[in-house]
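Human: I hope this is not a bother. Would you mind checking the protein record under this note? Thank you for your patience.
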Amino acid sequence: MNLPTHILVPTDFSPTADEALDYAIVLAAKLGASITVVHAYDVAAVSGAHVRANAQSALDAALAKRQGAGVSLKSLLKSGNPLDTIPDVAREIGAELIVMGTHGRQGIARMLLGSVAERVVRTAPCPVLTVAPADPDEA
């Protein structure tokens, strides 16, 4: 088994996604890997002309905050349902590992809201490392 050289980090700009990105940066630095940060927004679930611009600004800010970490960081903005888009992007870019946050919802909240991380784990073309929130109350 080869160690990953390209890591995909999906983000929804939540504190948990930020923790996953920071974890991936530490991991990538140790492995000599590059990182692509992707945000997928579902056009059917959102409205407004500024969605794409706001998402790109948030991606740019997330990467700018982490410049100088000694890791190659790229951003990618995709329109589509994150459940499908994240595994598709992993295939497209040849990611060898996905590092993503999980909100750790259980019970009725999980049933109603679902779990993007769980679906990605089941459909990804590569291993998936999930990062739980440091403070479970943030989830």
